[in-house]
Amino acid sequence: MRSRTRFAVAMALLQCVGVCAGLPASAQAPDKADAAAARKEGNLSWYTSTPVALAQQLADRFQEQTGIKVQLLRTGGQAVLRRLQQEVSAGRPGADVMTMSDGGAANGLAKQGLFEPFKPEGFDKVVDDARDRDGRWIAQRLSIVGIPIRSDKVKDVPTTWSDLKHPKYKGLMVMPDPSFTAIQLVVVGMLSRTLGWDFYKALRANETMIVQGHQQVFSTMQQGERIIGAEGADPRSFSDGQEVPNQKMVYPTEGVFIVSSPTAVIKGARNPNAAKLFAQFMISPLAQKMIAAGGVHAARIDIAPPPGQPALSEMKFIPVDLDLIEERGRELKTRFADIFQ
User: In this predicted model, what pLDDT tens digit does every residue of 256-304 receive, in sequence order?
Assistant: First the structure.
């Protein structure tokens, strides 16, 4: 039987109080990064799909704290994954640390032995299903995926995913490409299973615009070219956590998607100590609070939700089957492309 990402566990943890919320997953002491050795290495390479402004803020803060330079490669989740896979095939991985948005792919790469097991301090505070039990990857953040709309232009607001099939939304919608962003790959995988591929055929008939990633969804809507995100992240995550006056998030009644963005230390990294120190920083309270302040849910259960956004325990969610995404990822991308070509 496939294992599934069951964020119901997270809900229970979030609703616990006192000892429950702080209960460690095991009695094992956290792994320690060698800070002195990391400083001698002096730099590290980070491949990431983290939103641009947030990625730079995290890199800058880490460099301020440690003096270690972060060489940042920021692109979409699928592009990050392809880049690493190509480099691994050539025997020269360029990344020391990677953060992407595809838990299924992270599981697959972990099974191939490409990640260095590492359980830093705070590992036990991360949502159970947003971390590999052996420490081969751990979520940096949790993306909440719903239906963003231009609140100043959309009068008849969709309330369900299925509503988007209605002809009245023809020419109004935009969504990202699952071949570019791993978050959309998860959504396509789950919605095609629950609603069928006819859902995406209907979106094609409604002339839904396809763009690369979530930043482009936000920008396209800001420009007024399209006014509904057929799938998108909270607009506040592209505005340094601040309210966007003309955009808001709709939480479909069937549920939203909660997608983890794994961080992993690459096995054989050129700067292994700096990589571990950076991975440790990523789930530190400081970094996790920076993530929440940037409009994205932190992975730790002891960090408050982004300002103005609901806690995980207050949302209905659609379970994500990471095994399905890992096993059928290529098929899902091909089927989507065939519909929207």
Answer: 998 889 999 999 999 999 999 999 999 999 999 999 998 899 999 999 9
Distances 222 to 3, 147, 229, 238, 247 between C-alpha atoms, Å: 39, 15, 11, 11, 8
Q: What is the pLDDT of residue 102?
A: 78
Our separate counts of H helices and E strands in the chain read 12, 12
List the structure tokens of 244: 């966007």
Q: Which residues pair with 40 in a beta bridge?
A: none
The burial class, CB within 10 Å (0-12 / 13-18 / 19+), for 327 is middle
Tokens 């050539």 locate to 90
Task: Tell me the three state secondary structure of residue 257.
Answer: strand
Pick out the chain residues at pLDDT < 70: 1-28
* Alpha-carbon gap, residue 217 to 186, rounded angstroms: 17
What Cα–Cα distance (Å) separates residue 241 from each residue in 155, 233, 296, 300, 308?
25, 12, 8, 18, 9
